[in-house]
Specification:
The N and C termini lie close together (5 Å). The longest helix has 33 residues, at 176-208. The protein has a domain at 27-226: Arp2/3 complex 21 kDa subunit ARPC3, CATH 1.10.1760. The chain is mainly α. The chain is built from ten helices and six strands; from the N terminus they run βααββααβααααβααβ. The strands form three sheets. The protein has a two-stranded antiparallel ribbon with strand order 1-6.
Length: 325
Amino acid sequence: MSSTTSSAPASSSPASSNPARRVPRPQELASSQKLMVFVLSMVLFGLANILTEVLPEFRVGPVELSVSYLAFVPVVMVSLFHPLYAALGAPLGEIIFVDLLMGNFSGVGELEGYIQLALGLYIGGSLVRDPARRWQVAVAAMVAVLIDKGVGGAVDILKVVVGVEDLESVQGLPESILALEGVAFASDFLISGIIFGAIPAAYLAPRLHGKIEPLMGMAPRDPRVPLPGRARQTAGFIGLAVVLFIASGLFAFLEYVDIELGLWEPDFLEQYGMSFLWVSVAACAVVLVTVVLLARRSAHRRRLEADHAPAAPATEAARTTTTGV
């Protein structure tokens, strides 16, 4: 009688033998990585808003045609990274690098625009399951601008109705305020939401997906794994959104009833000209380089820790015995 014993080979894949090699996914980010996403979104949108300061503006009667902001920049960020932290950082970039550094900060009134844009970007980014799908990114851009400009237009109308702001309407036609706000909203949606929003964002996001995330030491978003903390169609989130919209309106009203809390308006552009924009550009560049260096250092440290981490114990192979005569 003879017997032979065979054992199945243990799995030797890096993922199973050394879990430390796996980079964190958006739902597993450490606090430092969340901060890097926040700051990167803030700096990039700040740079984009500095660029809009030099773009020309056109006026057709009472309607002003201009680029409110380059929406594709924050939309790409909320599509590639966790939408909450990217959405919170983006509008802060405009406040710091444009309003504060250029001396045009309206104090507590800035919270109106911050809440509206942050909430719009957060909801838009939460709609993106797969950044490689262009139509999802395009919808995110349009939804973000729709929420931001739609709520802003409604607040402007309420200002006139309440009487805290002068009525800018066609002479002899008080109802024209609705038409003017509608035209302004349509132009903003077309220019910022589609031309400088959905179209470039749908082009850039799929090309950057999977390439920029490793530089931050993160794994790309997986369409099969829903992000925790994303906006959902629940009664709780809808109620919170309504409260935030009401709060943004209250902050806007405070600005127009002479409550100038935190007002800062030395207006450096009028004093020093458009060349003062380079101060903001330099500040953005310093912060951006710092974020990139910290991200690369963090990714390098994570790789070193993964290389020196002890391998997980191999799974004991199942043994089979064959008996022959």
